[in-house]
Amino acid sequence: MTITARLLTGAAMLAALGATAAAADTLADLEAAAKKEGMLTVIALPHDWCNYGAVIEGFKKKYPEIQVNELNPNAGSGDEIEAIKANKGNTGPQAPDVIDVGLSFGPAAKAEGLLQPYKVATWDEIPDSVKDPEGYWYGDYYGVLAMGVNKDIVAEAPTSFADLTDAKYANAVAMPGDPRTGNSSMMTVYAAGLATDGKLAGADALNAGIAWFKALKDSSNLVPVNGSAQNLAQGTTPIYFDWDYNLLAMRDKLDGNPPVEVVIPSDSVIAGVYVQAISAFAPHPNAAKLWMEYLYSDEGQIGWLSGYCHPIRFNAMAAAGKLPADLMAKLPPAEAYSKAVFPSLDEQGAAKKATADNWAAQMGVN
User: Fold this and answer.
1) What percent of the chain has pLDDT over 90?
2) From which residue to which does the signal peptide run (predicted)?
């Protein structure tokens, strides 16, 4: 019999929901089936992104019988989707079992038949607005776009997108990657568009953002190099955009060498939700489901919070008094997030199409 399992609240039984993987009647059965598979293949999980290094170690410590095979930690959301497509008939180590992608990539992958449904035990605590009702994809964490600033090189940190157009930031500003393949970069362009006109949305916001970045490139303020912790520390990209949790973790890791300031732009606060999903062709479907159960458990959610990510069960866990006070004290003040805009799924889908259609032509890149 084939099922998709969901642990019932307060019970160990898993509900039969009609998926394509092997049966598991209890959590213990799921654990046994996953251990028999002996491997989990993940992709695009840098250890310094959202504390994934510690999260992976936590899973390995809990299930030492399962080898975690890590593919291309620096891949973008588009790369993850392509990895599923390229390995449909491959049961070897190059076929990802699970993906962690930007919100707009979840529905698109479902529509292409690339995902299989699964609902975790804590399903009811995931907001309906960020999950597929059938369980093909669901939100895992979110953050807001921010600027990381090397204070050794940039003495006066910018506070907004508008500030970045000043000539004093020549050859200083970067994005983490190509917006056609990376969700954080695409949403950076989107945020720039909103900074020019807060009433814009979808493709209009994205296209306005492309125009803004083209002007930044023409003024020589935009650096044609991907922003990273190494490039920021070396001064190649002394200002670069990324999710707040990545930049805060980078700040801590650099530990003052150089000093880094993390700034949430005052004129455009864009929140981004990432989602988890299981490949329809996962070679290790039970290990994939067990990984999901771990990520959405209290332990997994607090693991993400330790990396400055807001876990998707944040509100439910806060109401239940499950969030450690010491972790909460390390996050930016709540008022920094008060103007956050969460682009809808339709708006992100339209932005994704506009990026594919217009970025290369406007920016003069391949």
Assistant:
1) 81
2) 1-21
